[in-house]
Design goal:
single chain, mainly alpha, five-stranded parallel beta sheet, 64% helix, elongated
């Protein structure tokens, strides 16, 4: 026999399974423990079948989780078909009552409970007895003897752990050596670790194709982290052709095992309609599963769905609840969104000081929109008014090429804020033009105004009309009104009253008072 014990269990009971493994290690019992499950199409992996055949005892960790597990059901069925019944030991670990079908199956077998047969004492004694060993002998065996035996015949689990220790200490070559040996023995964790090593080039030459090969092998055995990694490979086209449907397939397998990141990514797939039919309700379902595990990205994503009313009933207070959870974990998007909620009173009482607090946290992490919003609060509200701070944050955002921030730096050279930097239209135009060329509508309007008034540039109505037109086409209502004025008076364009009226109407429909009053005075409906 290759192993003393095959452990059949639900991965939801990993904590107890690990205690049992630790107890086995102490008394020198070798074991096979599989944390992978059944692969694609529910075929029974060869490695599991061979491990059951090659084990003297099958230990079934009976629990509410394992009763519902297709993995343990398959393992038990195979064990009953291939092994003597007296080699199978049911061990109830959660005080549950076995379903009638299992009670019938085990009617001729004495099962144990964790209450009456504690792991470290009675259970170990029972297993040793089933193996034909004396418990006293095993206890008397020195740790040195046990270590020597393990050294002579290390299990796949031992090799994987040894590889992990070597990796942690920076000895990547030794880690790879151990993981290759463990992988050869069918250890899916080692396979996943090899895939990760190839992905990052630790101990081996970086190779996305080889990374994906190892992740696929482990994923098909049900290893949850490998399933997530394989989904990521398909999404990001790392080692395979990009395939969103395949990505969603593997994310789902990992998500169904409780993998928080996979749950979030599957929710994202549904929200974007990538690889699956767009379905916000499904997105909310998977975001919630990950969010309830404390995954900040999912908390922020669920907040967004509540804010927009997508897949859930719109509820600003609920969106704030989830934004706050994400923000308190340092998630920059949650921090920004919470700041926005406080700035505009969405789901919370409007509070500019709180808005600044959360914007600042996100801004300091490099969130450009938070930097601009923070600057806006500093330049606008009396409770947070600090124009020099506003300029500082606009400059930080401008360094990333943000068109809005670039525009506002120009604005600091004119009008109300010119006291901070000194009024200088020539300098302002440099920033307005750069922002306008990037397509920022407000900057395009300002360029039109500068050319119309001859501020920082030579007066040029034709040039002004061109810039007003660009901004007007982006629904800038002031630009639309200006363009109407230019067409009515033939400034830089051929005089055309019909076109002028159309632009006045567009501005009026967007609520621009000057346009509304002008059309009313002329008896023109809009």
């Amino acid at each position: 026999m290759k192993y003393d014990v095959f452990i059949s269990y639900s991965r939801k009971d990993t904590a107890i399974a690990d205690r049992i493994c630790a107890a086995f290690d102490k008394v020198g019992i070798s074991y096979f423990i599989d944390r992978q499950g059944i692969g694609g199409g529910f075929e029974f992996p060869v490695v599991l079948a061979e491990a059951i055949i090659d084990s003297q005892v099958t230990l079934f960790l009976a629990s509410k989780n394992s009763y519902e597990s297709k993995f343990t059901n398959a393992e038990l069925t195979f064990a009953f078909n291939e092994k003597p019944k007296n080699s199978i030991l049911p061990y109830i670990i959660d005080g549950s009552t076995m379903p009638p079908a299992l009670r019938f199956v085990f009617s001729s077998i004495n099962w144990r409970t964790i209450e009456s047969h504690p792991i470290e004492t009675t259970l170990m004694s029972d297993i040793l007895t089933m193996l034909g060993r004396k418990a006293t002998t095993a206890k008397a065996t020195s740790s040195t003897t046990t270590t020597k035996a393990a050294t002579k015949n290390p299990t796949a689990s031992d090799l994987n752990k040894k590889g992990a220790e070597a990796y942690k200490s920076g000895n990547y070559a030794e880690a790879i050596r151990c993981w290759f040996k463990a992988a050869e023995l069918g250890n899916a964790y080692a396979m996943h670790n090899l895939g990760t090593s190839y992905y990052f080039g630790k101990g081996v030459t970086q190779d996305y194709t080889e990374s994906t090969r190892w992740h696929r092998t482990a994923a098909e055995l049900g290893q949850v982290d490998a399933q997530f990694s394989l989904g990521s490979a398909y999404e990001q086209a790392k080692g395979v052709a990009q395939d969103y449907a395949e990505a969603a397939k593997w994310y789902r397998k990992a998500a169904e095992q409780g993998h928080a990141k996979a749950q979030f990514n599957l929710g994202w797939s549904y929200a974007k309609g990538e690889g699956v039919t767009q379905d916000y309700a499904e997105a909310a379902k998977w975001y919630r599963k990950a969010a309830e595990q404390g995954y900040a990205k999912a908390q922020n994503g669920l907040g967004n769905l509540y804010y927009d009313g997508k897949g859930v009933t719109q509820d600003y207070a609920e969106s704030v609840k989830w934004y706050r959870k994400a923000a308190e974990q340092g998630n920059i998007y949650g921090q920004y969104n919470l700041g926005y909620a406080y700035q505009w009173g969405k789901g919370v009482t409007q509070d500019y000081v709180e808005a600044v607090k959360w914007y600042l946290k996100a801004a300091e992490q490099g969130h450009v929109r938070a930097q601009c919003s923070l600057a806006y609060c500093y330049r606008t509200y009396s409770l947070t008014y600090e124009p020099k701070e506003a300029l500082k944050w606009y400059r930080k955002a401008a360094e990333t090429g943000d068109a809005e921030a670039i525009y506002y730096i120009g604005d600091f050279h004119t009008g109300y804020f010119s006291s901070v930097m000194g009024k200088n239209y020539e300098e302002a135009v440099k920033y307005f033009r750069k922002s306008a060329d990037m397509g920022y509508g407000r900057a395009q309007y300002e360029m039109g105004w500068c050319y119309e008034k001859g501020r920082g540039v030579s007066q040029d109505y034709a040039e002004a009309a061109q810039w007003y037109c660009k901004a007007a086409e982006k629904n800038d209502r002031m630009a639309q009104f200006k363009l109407g004025h230019f067409y009515e008076n033939g400034l830089g364009v051929a005089r055309d009253m019909n076109t002028a009226i159309e632009w006045y109407k567009k501005a009026a429909r967007l609520g621009y008072e000057d346009a509304i009053n002008l059309l009313k005075d002329r008896g023109i409906s809009f």
